[in-house]
Specification:
343 residues, alpha/beta, six-stranded mixed beta sheet, 12 strands, globular
C-alpha cells in the first residue's frame, strides 16, 4: 500500500521527520506494509511538489524553512509553486504554533479536510483554537486525525488513554508536560538558585528559547492538557477554561522550604472529573517525594492516569527535542494505516 504525504511547515521538527523517513523507509515498508511517499512540502512562501516523490537526501542538504524549499526547487529544476492540497492522501501539519489564531495550521487542516486527506498534527495551535470544529468537520467527511505529537511529543500520553486504557473510566490525568519548565524547576531545587538564574542556564544549554513565555507561563502545558481532556474525557473545553499559573514567581525560599519538608517542585497540568465536570488546571506544586512524578527531573516529562478499573497508570521520559516530536508524528502515521487492516 502506498500513501502520499504532504507536509506543511519545514522547520526543525519537519526536517527531523524527513530524516526519519529517509533513514527508515525500507524498514517501514517491510514491517508495516506501507510505502510512504512525500510528494509535497509547503513553507510560508510556497511549496515544492513532485508526483514521483521528493528526493529526501537532496532536500536534507538544503537547510530548513521556505528558503530550503526554494533551494531544492532550484537544484532539481522544478517550480517553487503556490500551495495546493490535491496531490496527497495525508497531511503532516508542522507549521508554527499560534494558539491565539490557530493559523496557519488551521487553514491547512481545513483545506486538507475539504480534500479528504487524513491528518497528523504536530502543531498545537489549530487544535487548541478550534478542536471541536475541526473534529466536527472531520467526522462529517470521515477524516481521521491524530495528534499525539502535540500532547507532549515523544511521551506517549494520548496513546495510553486511547489504546492502553480503552474501556476504562479515566477520572483524572495529571502530568509534567513541558520539559523546559521542568528543567528550570529541577535546576532551582538541585542547585539552590533563583528562577532567573535557572532560566539563564536553560537558555545557555539551548533548552529554553530566547523568549520562553509559552513554557514558563504554563501555556504550553495548558494547551497539552486541554487536548488530552478534549480527546480522552470529552471535556468540550477551550484554553480559557484552564486555570493557569506559571513558574515565574516560584522563589528560592520556596525551594528550600520544600526540600526541608521532603517535597519537590513540579509544574503539574491536571484534568480532573469533579461532579461530572472536567476541571482543568496548570500550577507549580510542591509534591511529596512518593508521588510517581516526583523523580521526573531535568527535561523529562511524565503523566499519570487515574482510572476506576485499572487503578493508576504512570509513564515517564520521552525525548524533549524535535526528533522526539518527529518520531511521534511518524508513529501516528503508522498507526493511521496499521488500523486500516488494508495491508
Amino acid at each position: 500500500m502506498q500513501k502520499k504525504l504532504m507536509l506543511t511547515g519545514y522547520g526543525t521538527v519537519a526536517k527531523e521527520f524527513i530524516k526519519l523517513m529517509s533513514d527508515h523507509q525500507d524498514r517501514l515498508k517491510t514491517t508495516y506494509g506501507v510505502h510512504f511517499l512525500i510528494t509535497g512540502i509547503a513553507g510560508s512562501r510556497g511549496m515544492i511538489f513532485e508526483e514521483t516523490g521528493i528526493d529526501l537526501h537532496t532536500l536534507l542538504t538544503c537547510g530548513t524553512g521556505s528558503n530550503a524549499l526554494s533551494v531544492y526547487a532550484e537544484k532539481m529544476n522544478i517550480p517553487f509553486q503556490d500551495i495546493t492540497f490535491n496531490h496527497a492522501d495525508t497531511l503532516i501539519e508542522c507549521a508554527p504554533t499560534n494558539i491565539e489564531t490557530g493559523e496557519p495550521g488551521l487553514s491547512y487542516i481545513y483545506q486538507a479536510i475539504d480534500m479528504g486527506m487524513d491528518i497528523v498534527s504536530v502543531s498545537k495551535g489549530a487544535l487548541v483554537h478550534s478542536f471541536q470544529d475541526i473534529n466536527h468537520k472531520a467526522n462529517e467527511k470521515g477524516i481521521r486525525i491524530k495528534y499525539s505529537g502535540a500532547t507532549a511529543a515523544a511521551l506517549p500520553t494520548l496513546d495510553i488513554g486511547e489504546y492502553s486504557l480503552a474501556g476504562c473510566t479515566i477520572t483524572r490525568v495529571e502530568g509534567i508536560l513541558n520539559g523546559t519548565s521542568n528543567f528550570i524547576l529541577t535546576s532551582m531545587a538541585e542547585n539552590s538558585i533563583t528562577f532567573d538564574e535557572a532560566l539563564k542556564l536553560a537558555q545557555q544549554k539551548g533548552i529554553a528559547e530566547s523568549n520562553p513565555k509559552l513554557d514558563v507561563s504554563g501555556m504550553d502545558s495548558a494547551s497539552k492538557i486541554l487536548l488530552l481532556a478534549n480527546g480522552l474525557l470529552n471535556a468540550n473545553a477551550s484554553i480559557h477554561d484552564v486555570q493557569i499559573t506559571g513558574i515565574e514567581q516560584v522563589t528560592k525560599q520556596q525551594m528550600i522550604e520544600a526540600k526541608n519538608n521532603n517535597r519537590t517542585p513540579k509544574l503539574i497540568a491536571r484534568a480532573e472529573i469533579i461532579d461530572d465536570n472536567v476541571r482543568l488546571s496548570v500550577e507549580p506544586l510542591m509534591i511529596n517525594k512518593d508521588h510517581p512524578l516526583a523523580h521526573v527531573n531535568g527535561t523529562n516529562k511524565g503523566i499519570v492516569f487515574d482510572t476506576i478499573e485499572m487503578g493508576s497508570v504512570c509513564t515517564t521520559g520521552g525525548a524533549s527535542h524535535p526528533r522526539g516530536a518527529a518520531a511521534a508524528a511518524l508513529k501516528d502515521l503508522i498507526n493511521l494505516y496499521r488500523m486500516d487492516g488494508s495491508y
